[in-house]
Amino acid sequence: MRDARMFALAAVLALAAGSAQSASREIYPDSSQAKADIAAAIKTAAATHRRVLLDFGGNWCGDCQVLDYYFHDANNLPILNADFVLVHVNIGHMDENVDIARKYDVPLERGVPALAVLSETGRLLYSQKKGEFEAMRRMESSSVTSFLVQWRPAKSGCSVMVVNC
What we know:
Layout: H1 2-21, H2 34-48, E1 51-57, H3 62-71, H4 77-83, E2 84-90, H5 98-103, E3 114-118, E4 124-127, H6 141-151
Parallel strand pairs: 1-2
Antiparallel strand pairs: 1-3, 3-4
Helix pairs in contact: 1-3
């Protein structure tokens, strides 16, 4: 546990040092792409029987950088790729795509990153209400794993009670 926290802290510090020298890593595309990206993700999700995972944040946000790092680590990437279509929604400096956040019941004033999960048809299944991931740099990758496992779609022929179908 302590090693994972130290690793996360080192990742945040490395990101901070890198962003001091240059612009932070570009995770979130231009904010004008969000509606088209969500529409495309819903189409892909419907065709592949996955869910849509909306990640609201900004490239300036250290916690958002850590969340993306955790999304792509060895434990989470296979779950993410198998069960979700990830859409990064750029909220600027809390002043862009506010209408989309509101549509999916994500209170940006609670902090970012903020997540919402949509069904393969685009129906809202979950929205982050209390800033659950806004302190990502103090969390561990396993919290992302738990979230992804909780919200992945049930596999065909699996009972809800079965954990590892």
